[in-house]
Specification:
Low-confidence stretches: 13-20
Number of domains: 2
CATH architecture of the largest domain: 3-Layer(aba) Sandwich
Mean pLDDT: 90
Number of helices: 9
Number of strands: 14
CATH topology of the largest domain: Rossmann fold
Largest sheet: 7 strands, antiparallel
Shape: globular
CATH superfamily of the largest domain: LmbE-like
Structural class: alpha/beta
Strand content: 15-25%
């Protein structure tokens, strides 16, 4: 009996240990004290859960000190722009000493593991503190990294599908359940491309939305300003016709997507930047195969042939090119939630800055701008027969 009790006690300890190991790391940011060598007025913006407020270093005075009564095992930062190289320092005796150095990266949401630090300082390599801005910062205690902490993988190579959209929020408004279905459910290599780099606020919203949709590889954020027009020629003039053509041609060559999906040729409600996406997406198919076009990216990556191009709402030639996606299918990868439910939640929970515009919404099946309706604008892989999969004739169909 004594051996049995001893065994049960050991088993109980083991179970409790396993439970403890699986506990999520708490967010201990509220306990921390932030000290900036720059002006202190904006330190409150570091942890207010608002991406439209930021902490910004001043020129020559960009470092940030963080003091916590509890040991910190993780640091999660939403930067206002691509983070420059910097060093994390920690306190040793009465002096700050180097703990870890980080190189510059294009990824603006970054997680940095720590080893129980209670005092740390972020010091940029450059003395230009104006390039050292933070939208949000979170400190984590001991435990498993929470699911909401974004630990981005590198941008996909040899993409199966590229989703090209004009602005943050278009990825759900007009393309519905595409991203959760093809990324998490189908496990394909999907490359989201936002033509507009947008503001820090909308960039943060986009990354949060993409993460919620199952995108784990970092998207491409284009270099173009979000400038409104109702005219395709005006949109090209604002973006720079050669610049935008070279950009998309280069993306095709570098990331080699089999299939490209983009906006309505009429820009949905007429937005010039949406029209530009559709127009340049088609033209760049020929450009990517032409050595005389964008010679720098041809030299770097060679020519490439996109197999298929789908446009939102496209149906100009005949019903034969029309495709209706079923975003109402339950997705086991998301516990049975549907693609349209995830798109709706992504917009509602993350694109908060756009809620003041009542006309913008995830377009339902019955809408003139339905996010279910697409058309095959170009194919080097033959016509669609089943008309329920962007990857038809390109990859084996693996519907849930």
């Amino acid at each position: 009996m004594r051996k049995l009790l001893s065994g049960l006690f050991f088993l109980a300890l083991l179970i409790l240990g396993l439970i403890a190991l699986g506990e999520e790391a708490p967010n201990i940011s509220g306990q921390a004290v932030f000290k900036g060598t720059s002006k202190a007025w904006n330190l409150k913006n570091l942890n207010d859960s608002l991406f439209n407020t930021t902490w910004q270093g001043e020129r020559g005075e960009g470092s940030l000190e963080v003091l916590s009564p509890s040991p910190c095992y993780g640091l999660y930062i939403s930067w206002t722009q691509q983070p420059q190289s910097f060093t994390v320092q920690t306190m040793q005796g009465a002096e700050w000493v180097a703990y870890q150095h980080y190189e510059a990266t294009p990824i603006v949401h970054q997680y940095y593991p720590l080893n129980g630090l209670t005092a740390l300082r972020l010091v940029p390599d450059s003395d230009d503190g104006k390039n050292f801005g933070i939208s949000e910062i979170s400190l984590l205690g001991k435990g498993e990294t929470p699911a909401w902490v974004q630990r981005w993988e590198p941008t996909v190579e040899d993409a199966d599908l590229m989703l090209l959209f004009a602005h943050p929020d278009d990825e759900v408004l007009y393309f519905g359940g595409l991203l959760p279905y093809y990324t998490a459910q189908r496990q394909l290599k999907v490359l989201p491309v936002s033509l507009s780099y947008a503001s820090p606020l909308r960039r943060n919203e986009l990354l949060n939305c993409l993460w919620s949709l199952g995108v784990k590889n970092y998207p491409v954020l284009g270099p173009f300003e979000d400038r409104y027009s109702f005219n395709l020629d005006k949109a090209y003039a604002l973006a720079g016709r050669k610049k935008v053509s070279d950009f998309i041609t280069g993306l095709y060559r570098q990331y080699r997507p089999e299939v490209v999906v983009t906006h309505d040729i009429n820009g949905e409600y007429g937005h010039g930047m949406h029209r530009l996406c559709a127009d340049v997406a088609e033209k760049a198919i020929a450009y990517a195969n032409d050595p005389s076009r964008s010679p720098d990216t041809f030299k770097a990556f060679g020519a490439f042939q996109v197999q298929k191009l789908y446009l939102h709402l496209y149906s100009e030639r005949s019903a034969d090119v029309q495709l209706v996606m079923d975003w109402d299918l339950p997705l086991p990868a998301f516990g049975g939630k549907t693609g349209i439910e995830l798109a709706l939640a992504g917009y509602q929970d993350h694109h908060l800055s756009q809620h003041r515009y009542e006309q913008y919404k995830v377009e339902p099946r019955s809408s003139p701008y339905s996010c279910y309706q697409f058309g095959l604008k170009y194919s080097a892989a033959g016509p669609d027969i089943l008309k329920n999969d962007f990857m038809e004739n390109v990859l084996p169909q693996k519907l849930p």
